[in-house]
TrEMBL record:
It comes from Vreelandella alkaliphila. Pathway: Porphyrin-containing compound metabolism; protoporphyrin-IX biosynthesis; protoporphyrin-IX from protoporphyrinogen-IX: step 1/1. GO terms for cellular component: plasma membrane. One of its GO terms (molecular function) is oxidoreductase activity. The lineage of its organism: Bacteria, Pseudomonadati, Pseudomonadota, Gammaproteobacteria, Oceanospirillales. Its cofactor is heme b. GO terms for biological process: protoporphyrinogen IX biosynthetic process. Belongs to the HemJ family. Pfam families: UPF0093 (PF03653). It comes from the Bacteria. Keywords: Cell membrane, Heme, Iron, Membrane, Metal-binding, Oxidoreductase, Transmembrane, Transmembrane helix. It is found in: Cell membrane. This is Protoporphyrinogen IX oxidase.
Length: 141
């Protein structure tokens, strides 16, 4: 089923791009909030992007990857490492959602630091997935 693998890769690329773009959106929203003072709430773009692009791409990537695993019966050490890297990406995704909620509630303390840490977590997950996938042809068991 090459179409399923294509769907998985496409969704993963969109999700990874979203995880790289969300920190920029969050930091921009934080700056807008600081510049506006108390008169303005958090901008709606981070939530829209998170709910409309990042989360659906993550769900499609995870669901299609699960289907690939179930249909092809793939199992091995590389899969465990890849799933571990995906867990890092999911954790970063959740952190970004939590930070969006904090900004919407007007809590801006620690958002910049947490955003950068979540970005590092996402990068570690993405590089882990990429490294495992590229090393998989070495016939890991």
């Amino acid at each position: 089923m090459p179409w399923l693998k294509l769907l998985h890769i496409a969704a993963l690329v969109i999700w990874c791009g979203a995880l790289l773009y969300l920190p920029a959106l969050l930091l921009h929203a934080l700056q807008l909030r600081k510049d506006a003072g108390f008169a303005q709430s958090a901008p709606p773009m981070p939530r829209f992007f998170y709910n409309s692009i990042a989360t659906p791409a993550a769900l499609v990537a995870i669901a299609s990857g699960t289907l690939l695993f179930l249909l092809h019966g793939l199992l091995g050490g590389w899969l465990i490492l890849k799933l571990g890297a995906v867990v890092l990406m999911v954790a970063a995704h959740g952190c970004f959602g939590w930070l969006i909620l904090r900004l919407e509630m007007g809590i801006s303390s620690g958002v910049k630091t947490a955003t950068l840490l979540a970005l590092l977590l996402a990068l570690a997950g993405m590089l882990g997935v990429l490294g495992v996938v590229l090393a998989k042809p070495l016939n890991w068991s």
